[in-house]
């Protein structure tokens, strides 16, 4: 039997999701950004661009796949896991 491939790393919520309106929007904007800016397309585009930069700056998309720097300390304080 060949070994099973490792599971994919856990993912955070993506910037866009199916059925959020971004697939049908000419600029790829999720509907929530248009609603947030009261349908002002230019402001919504600017807000979405800022959102994407924030995600990149704080590496949000890889947050769960990176080791926590204080994991050992946390594990020593709370050795249990409840699901």
Written account of the structure:
- It is built from 3 helices and no strands.
- The chain is mainly α and 83 residues long.
- It is elongated and about 50 Å long.
- The mean pLDDT is 86.
Q: How would you concisely characterize the structure shown here?
A:
The protein is mainly α.
Keywords:
83 residues; 3 helices; 0% strand
What is the total tally of β strands?
A: 0
Number of helices: 3
- Residue stretches low in confidence (pLDDT < 50, at least 5 long) are none
SSE arrangement, N to C: HHH
Q: Which class of secondary structure composition applies to the elements?
A: mainly alpha
Largest sheet: none
- Assembly annotation: single chain
Straight-line N-to-C gap: 31 Å
Provide the β-strand percentage band: under 5%
Principal-axis shape equals: elongated
Secondary structure topology:
Elements: H1 31-36, H2 41-57, H3 71-77
């Amino acid at each position: 039997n060949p070994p099973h491939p490792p599971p994919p790393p856990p993912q955070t919520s993506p910037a866009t999701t199916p059925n959020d309106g971004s697939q049908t929007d000419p600029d790829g904007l999720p509907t929530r950004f248009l609603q947030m800016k009261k349908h002002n397309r230019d402001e919504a585009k600017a807000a979405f661009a800022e959102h994407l930069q924030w995600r990149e700056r704080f590496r949000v998309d890889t947050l769960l796949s990176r080791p926590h720097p204080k994991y050992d300390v946390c594990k020593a304080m709370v050795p249990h896991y409840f699901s």
